[in-house]
């Protein structure tokens, strides 16, 4: 019977350890703040938003130069959850706070015009890292000015060809004549 309580204590200590790790990991990933709503338009991530899009504007302290553009987050309010995409930045929002599209606010919380602002929580969807981490790809907003481009046209190339005007052929014939002479002498 002594081994049973030890096993239970070990099991309890192990379970307690894992619950502590999970709770602290969850607390790091969850952000709490004020949820407000905004009118749609061109977002800081470079796309035009509509009132029916499930999108949010991320507060400037967590904006991180736009590195969170198009990331999905999970929002929680009053026992309900919804997913949305970050497509804009909220200049008036404190750290942890979000600006929600009209439609997202309506679906998750209620009538934006009647309610105004609420306290809620959110986290990066599928993320097990802290909210200060950056993604592997970074969005770069389009440039508002475009540098002039210059093109140069190379001068036309000139080619020259030589065409013979006359052709002459000369032949030389050499003849060789050989002569032989024979002489016979007799001595006597």
Textual characterization of the structure:
This protein has 188 residues and is α/β, with parallel strands linked by helices. It has a domain at 31-124: Barwin-like endoglucanases (Beta Barrel). It contains four helices and six strands. The longest helix is centred in the first third of the chain and has 27 residues, at 3-29. The protein is globular and about 75 Å long.
The low-pLDDT segments are: 1-28, 128-139, 165-188
Shape: globular
Mean pLDDT, nearest integer?
A: 70
Please indicate the percent range of residues in DSSP E strands (runs of 2 or more): 15-25%
Radius of gyration: 44 Å
* Individual helix count: 4
SSE map:
Layout: H1 3-29, E1 31-38, E2 55-59, H2 60-63, E3 72-77, E4 80-90, E5 98-101, H3 102-108, H4 112-115, E6 118-124
Parallel strand pairs: 1-5, 2-4
Antiparallel strand pairs: 1-6, 2-5, 3-4, 3-6
Q: In summary, what is this structure?
A:
The protein is an alpha/beta fold and 188 residues long. The chain has helices at residues 3-29, 60-63, 102-108, 112-115, and strands at residues 31-38, 55-59, 72-77, 80-90, 98-101, 118-124. The protein has a domain at 31-124: Barwin-like endoglucanases (Beta Barrel), CATH 2.40.40.10.
């Amino acid at each position: 019977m002594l081994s049973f309580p030890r096993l239970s204590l070990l099991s309890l200590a192990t379970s307690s350890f894992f619950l502590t790790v999970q709770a602290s990991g969850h607390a790091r990933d969850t952000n709490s703040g004020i949820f407000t709503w905004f009118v749609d338009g061109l977002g800081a991530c470079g796309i035009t938003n509509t009132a029916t899009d499930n999108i949010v504007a991320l507060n400037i302290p967590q904006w991180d130069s736009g590195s969170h553009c198009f990331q999905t987050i999970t929002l929680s309010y009053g026992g309900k959850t919804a997913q949305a995409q970050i497509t804009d930045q909220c200049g008036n929002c404190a750290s942890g706070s979000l600006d929600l599209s009209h439609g997202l606010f309506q679906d998750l919380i209620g009538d934006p015009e009647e309610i105004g602002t609420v306290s809620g929580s959110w986290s990066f969807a599928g993320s097990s890292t802290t909210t200060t981490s950056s993604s592997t790809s970074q969005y770069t907003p389009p440039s508002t000015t475009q540098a002039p481009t210059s093109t140069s046209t190379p001068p036309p190339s000139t080619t020259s060809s030589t065409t013979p005007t006359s052709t002459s052929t000369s032949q030389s014939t050499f003849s060789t004549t050989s002569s032989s002479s024979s002489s016979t002498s007799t001595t006597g």
